[in-house]
Queue: 4 jobs
Job 1
Amino acid sequence: MNKDFLMELLDTSSPSGLEKEVQLVWMNYMKEFSHKVESDNVGNAYAVLNPEAEFKIMIAAHGDEIGFMVKNIDSNGFIFLEKLGGISPKIAVGMKIKFLGEKEIVGIVGANAEHHGGVKEKLTINDIYVDCGFKNKEEAINFLNIGDMAVYKRSAELLQNNMIAGKALDNKTGSFIIAEVMKNLSSKKLDIGVYAVNTSCEETNQGGAYFAASKIKPNLSIACDVTFATDYPGVDTKDHGEYSLGGGPVLAKGSQINININKSLEESASELGIKLQYELTPRRTGTDADTIKFTGKGVPVALVSLPLRYMHSPVETASFTDMEDEINLLTHFILNLKPNFNMNPIEG
Ligand SMILES: [Zn+2]
């Protein structure tokens, strides 16, 4: 497992709809482990093994991250924001923000001093603003345009017990996992085509996955994302279930999911001695899996997620042990996947 590659992905910005920077990094890494690497008109990046094979599996991870957009600049040069995906304004207070307009520029989200009443109890996105140090609006517009995108400026930290914390682990860990799976598979003989897709726009409209699956027309697909760990103070596990870091990859169960794929994933896990956790997605999964399923003539899907603490914060935390388990699980599943794999849940 090349942890440095995950660090590089985490350090590379990819606000939803502006994934170019991360896709170039991802595609460059994948060249060595794929027969074909390409991109498309909605910002997806593809890496393919055995592009001639008729039977195809698509493994998808979204490469975009949540962020901000410039909504307004006031006469004093303070910048007001719009949310790009599920970002929490409360958590943004006191953080550094990197704007990715024509000229990259850094600012901070101001925090009202305790002496002046402190930070408001309830914050909306309209209550926060970014201070780049500009004197006025005239100066600011030399650097920024309305609609420019921004992300937190923050490096990942390694924690004890093989854990990592930082921004955008949702879902750079997924981009990393599918890359490492391809790396493992690239030295093996395969009977099938494997399409790894680092999708765009999941955090905002899941549009990337739609284009990717429509283009590939896979026989089956596995989406790789993150899900809510509940092993930290203040979470009611009675309501939200018990999901722990180090507890293993999480398989989704519910009506969107093809049970034959899940069964085969479970067999792989038991052969490898990998622990699994289960999450319930009775209706929809809220991930690229939903979109992929409804493309073309329909695609049987499964969803494998990495447990993650502090979702959508700049300190999202995950375990390398779970990542390693997920990489091994998917590698083993794909190596054992034959073109006659029956996904029909009535027959299978
Ligand atoms: Zn995600």
Note: The mean pLDDT is 95.
Job 2
Amino acid sequence: MTKTRVEFRSDNCGRAAPELIEALVAANTDTELGYGGDALTATLQSRFSDLFEASVQVFPVPTGTAANALALAAAATPFGAVYCSPEAHIHTSECNAAGFFGGGTKLVPIEGPHGKVNPEALELAITTAGKGLTHKSQPAAVNLVQATDRGAVYSLDEIAAVSQVAHAHGLTVHMDGARFANAIARLGCTPAQASWRAGVDVLSFGVTKNGGLLTDAIVVFAPESATDIGFHLRRAGAVWSKMRFASAQIMAYVADDLWLRLARQANAAATRIAGQIESVAGVTIIAPVQANELFVEMSAATLAGLEQDGVLFYRRGPRLARFVCRWDTSEDDVAALVGSIVRHTAAS
Ligand SMILES: Cc1ncc(COP(=O)(O)O)c(C=O)c1O
């Protein structure tokens, strides 16, 4: 190994894209109204309406957790149930922010492959939920994570199938798009096709993980699904007072397809790694590598060997590793990870 530190822990560990830093500097002139009353935030609304080919509302927020929890709080009643994959970030990793900001909203896990929600399982869960019974949480929304927490990507038909079930029962469809760019880059479709045209009502639009800095956003396609969202955001302290700097980051992120170029780089690194390790004896890739993450089973000795080599990653089980590629993952990073895996599997 030539390097002592090979970073595959998270896309949060990467640098911010220089274009976003430059946009912050460029926005640092003159005076502007706070709380979104500025010119850049107004431009952001029309820019996103163009991007999504529909009239949308955009709310820049500090984190993906804020985007998810507050979008769902606006969509669900405090006695509502939100259906999601057992792997979903809102279920595993957000300290039940959705329940907290929702005032008691309950998360109900629905099985499905590779972090997806299975539409038949969703249908069964809703129809047996006890709609109208005061003893039961009332079906309110479904959460799809795109790309999923296992690195897979919902096809447009899969999104539409879940949305159809949800809408047939009056539920809101929320998409956690922390890695929406990676999914769009993979699908090669328009943002509209992968969101409202497939039935998504509200989207958590990720920026941070893909070259962003300090801001994600909520995009509302169906205003009736989020009528009070402004109050939820303000009460949670999730409205930037100097909003123009948040909006400047997001404007730069989508300018000239930067967001898709960055996502393609991250996805390509993951695809290269998968291609080079999939036939290595002792290595099993447990979920389709369709975005920028790999979930790989190896022996405990191999995992320990990687750590000794300075490869940084998270263990997701005694034999399971998660490797996350970033827009700035280098060829050297890829070669170092693959080399370490090949060497240690051969030795164990
Ligand atoms: C799928 C998914 N959704 C949401 C988030 C939340 O983002 P944040 O850590 O900015 O709150 C993450 C972060 O890891 C994520 O992986």
Note: The longest strand covers residues 138-145.
Job 3
Amino acid sequence: MGDSGRSRGRISYPAASTPATMRRANERVLLERLARMRIASRADLAKAAGLSQPTAGKIIDRFLRLGLLREHQPGKGPRPPAGRARQRTGRPGRMIEFDGRTPRFLGVHLDVRETALAPLPVCPFAEVEWPVRFPTPDSPAEWRERLRQHKPRRLKGLWAVAVSAPGIVDERSGRVLFSPNLHWTERVNLIELLRSVWDLPVVLVQEIRALALGHLNAEPATEDFLLVDFGEGLGAAMVLNGRLYSGPVPLSGELGHTPVPGNPRPCGCGGTGCLETLVSRRGLLESMASSGGPAGSWAEFVAAVRRGAPPSWLLASMEAAGAVIAGALNVLGLRKAVVTGHLNDLPTAACETLAEAIRRGAMWARFGEILCELAPRRRGAGLIAACMDRLLPEISAKAKAGR
Ligand SMILES: [Zn+2]
């Protein structure tokens, strides 16, 4: 690359050498360190980010003025670590944290059955409530109309809209390439659609990737993991080397479409026997109905499987899921699986069968420990983290201009 550049008589300098990209790189590392530390003195934050105190101080002051960071108010938010309240240098006792008070992003979660909206602060480990919910219609025009009806009156102060969507999602272009459970999204550009409702930048994140990013930010001390979500389908996303993995094509973690031998069910992807036809919500309800159990709502299903011993078809489905997840761990070289979604509703025996099947199939179990953890869905935190990552140039420009 460099050789061919020189052969044409030009030397191109790497982009990182320009002051603006240098500034953004410093800002990025400072925000990443603060997200891990939660709260820190100026001196500790500068040290953790590997920046001089004047450089870190300038960034902190700009972000304080912008309302992205704030000085810790004693008694509010996370407590400063013991012994750090009085600082040796700078302004004594003033700790820095994310300003989690003001909504800066609008979160939109497009799910197969329901769409939810939430105001999101800039704090990348915030626990988020989703106060607005409506059934997801079956056309883009109706969805746009419903979003308009639920549009917050006050847009002032919002920096962007963050949307998570299921399927194979090209996050940069705004296109959903394939969505077996929500086919209409394949016919629209989600970024353009949302921009026509809110005239704001739009950040699109595949829904399972948002969950993995949220888990990473909520538990920064975690080791690398494969997140597996049981929902309308079965999806996965992985954190490798401390970062959400993105491949060369916009497709990853599609564990749900691995065929299970002996399973004749047709899948929305066009295949037959896919794992998600057994362990998705719909798949589980179908298994219950075909085994002579009550055909009803999810709540009735949960109540039924929690009564008495778990049905053998449920344990067999968990075995199948565990084998597929173990295969993914073997390929990726990971030893930790984080499981989110409706598995949290199922009886302990079903979760244990899954964990046991993962251990049985995971090669690492022969040498060391395999970790399986049930966790809540931290979608809001994931969307915030994605916005802060992708919109840093815009946020940085706002901070520089003092807006
Ligand atoms: Zn499939």
Note: The first strand starts at residue 39 and ends at 41.
Job 4
Amino acid sequence: MMETNKENVKSLNHSEKKQISLYSIGINFVLSLIKIFGGIVSGSAALTADGVHSLSDLAASLSVYVGIIISNKKSDLFPHGLYKVENLVALVSAFAIFFAGYEIAKDVLFGETEPIKNLTVAMGVIAITVLITFLYSRWEKQKAIELNSPSLLADAEHIKTDFYTALVVLVGVLGQYFGYPIVEKIAVVVVVYFIFHSGFEILKEAIKVLLDASLDHETIEDIKDILKNEPKIKDIITITGRNAGSFQFVQLDLVLNTDSLKEAHEVAHTIEDEIKKQMPFVEKVIIHYQ
Ligand SMILES: [Zn+2]
């Protein structure tokens, strides 16, 4: 009965996380659409650039969604394969993002910027963007803390930077409108920086997984702390493992304080359950004992 309740809570959390990451996809989709449309109609290079930035955010939020979906699958059924497909897709989208950033930088920095044709449209789009990003990042941050989800927290922080980016675009549009195109060029540089930043984050994550990066120091220390509370462990020989996207695969080599094979097996199970319970991103624990 207890187990069933725990499983229910887990799957409820999971479906809520999935739901929130779908909202992020929807928001980035709407933002890229209205910014690119508004940028073209108003003639603002900064707003169009910010629209491309939202497109790169859309790619990032799609990969968060895929990560959350994969986290709920039984990994034994398809060992590691799917993670790498996800990361290959991420790798390709990172390069698409870099290319878009380069194109914008080239056009705006070495070309002539146009005067603002329609200030009302530009201002309307910026106002909507400011409102959506401000409210949504606050709400998502609160949810991320409730659900203890690092990927949602990172997304909330990112959308908060999108709020500041919109303010930069606002300054750029006003600068251009009042006859200072250099202000808009500077705004575009700031936005291009954020485009490259988004691309770089995606690329870093992808390469980490593709190269089977090992566990970070902090994770290993956390595992050590959990193991210290298990009296049946006589000695810890090694703690190793690897990352796969947001998930971790842990491998332990332990000396146990028992001669009974049955008991050793039970202890191993207890350890695995405890680690998984305290560390939600640990997907699998393999324990060798002697
Ligand atoms: Zn962004």
Note: Residues 2-42 form the longest helix (41 residues).
